[in-house]
Amino acid sequence: MKRTALHLATVALLLPLAACGTSAQAGTGSTITVTVGYQSKTINTVTAGTLLRSLGYFEQQLGALHDGHTYKVVWQDYATGAPITAQMTAGKIDIGSMGDFPLLINAARGKQLGRPTHLVSVTGYNLRGGLNTIVTAPDSKLSTLEDLKGRKVSTSVGSAADGTLVRALQRVGIDPDKGIEKLNQQPAVGASALDAGSADALSQFVAWPGLLAYQGKAKALYDGAQLDLPTFHGVTAREDFAKQRPAVLEAFLKAQAQATDYLNAHPVAAAEKVAKATGLPAEVVYLYNGAHGISTFDPAVKPQLVSALKQDVSILKSEKLTGDIDVDSFVDDQYAKKALGSAYTKELAATPPPATSEVWPKGAETTRPFKSPDELLKYVAQHRSAIRAAYVPDTTTGTLWFADRAVWVVDGSRLLPFVAPATAQAYVAAHPGARTISYADALGRAS
């Protein structure tokens, strides 16, 4: 299956190169078409895709150029980054957004086919790696990574979620090529396989783990933030497009910054907009994109992210998906610096705030933060029928998770949440007297 998928991907990438998405030689007064590839359900790209499209900021920025041209934006939605790369290297997409591992493949394919691309900005990121999660079925007896030995694990080869799986297995001494049976599947297919029992676990990127947990179709086995290695999504642009239409690319980046500001200022409204456009539950969108969500949004290409990108190359090489990649030449934030001015320098130095416990009351347009999970539980216990969603940060990694899907530990008078059972057990082992309890018990103790 893996060889077949790779063969098909290669065939797609080697299709005859077509005309550019933009009209490079267009004269004054002509109509310029700009084609943007995005992934509506990969919700950490929303500031360069779903949310940006719904707000209309890019079209507004293009209209403000007043350069004698009329601009038409074509938005093309894909399930993963691979087809976006195929279309970019065929000259049919000008700007695309995707995760860190697909970005590297984008860089490699662009160079290989003589259509170089560049990482020009970042959308959403998590500095510890919390955007990827390994989940199992709700009734699964699996509780640690070691339990995956000899099991069938679904992931998307070449994705950041696959990278998390490979690294996590290596850390516990399991050969990711021989120690498990890896199923190379699209996220939706893998989710179905997990539900049907034909896969024992699923390693996927946002928003699939949170969605399946919310639906009661999965439980977390491994929190990607345990790797303590940044994961992110970003914007890539064709080099020829950027050189021919720098003002257009800068207009896109200004619009992305506007969308980012909107998301940060109106996180609940943004979650509702994305939910409406994608069909995802707004509660799941907010888990990742909320005020204290798993993802942080700003366009700056931070040094930590570039460093992590360089470390990702070895994983792709081990999967025989790429050779060496010159990450430094792939990264090009000059257009973002020009578009955002002094704000870019400010974002570059900014650090994400710590995650906070939050409740989303039914019918409310804002969420309610709490100083601790204990306080959140007390509130939820007193307002059970009025709660739309409740979120708590993992005690050790800070990854936000649904309170009713978390693993709870009681330690004296403290009630502590964890995303995965292994991290909860590690805490219990290190703290005599601590023990895991059910969510119902945690609510009862809090009230």
Defining key terms:
D-Maltodextrin-Binding Protein, domain 2; 3 domains; 41% helix; globular; 447 residues; five-stranded mixed sheet; alpha+beta; 19 helices; six-stranded mixed sheet
Give your account of this protein's structure:
- The chain has 447 residues and is of the alpha+beta class.
- It has three domains: 243 residues, D-Maltodextrin-Binding Protein, domain 2; 96 residues, Periplasmic binding protein-like II (D-Maltodextrin-Binding Protein, domain 2, 3-Layer(aba) Sandwich); 90 residues, no CATH class.
- Helix content is 41%, strand content 21%.
- The protein is built from 19 helices and 18 strands.
- The protein has a six-stranded mixed sheet with strand order 2-1-3-10-4-11, with helices on both faces.
- Strand 6, helix 6 and strand 7 form a beta-alpha-beta unit.
- The N and C termini lie far apart (52 Å).
CATH architecture of the largest domain: 3-Layer(aba) Sandwich
**CATH class division of the largest domain:** Alpha Beta
The percentage helix is 40-55%
Low-confidence stretches: 1-20
**Estimated radius of gyration:** 22 Å
Report the mean per-residue pLDDT as an integer: 93
Overall 3D shape: globular
Strand arrangement across the biggest beta sheet: 2-1-3-10-4-11
- Number of DSSP E strands: 18
CATH superfamily of the largest domain: Periplasmic binding protein-like II
CATH topology of the largest domain: D-Maltodextrin-Binding Protein, domain 2
What composes the largest sheet?
Answer: 6 strands, mixed
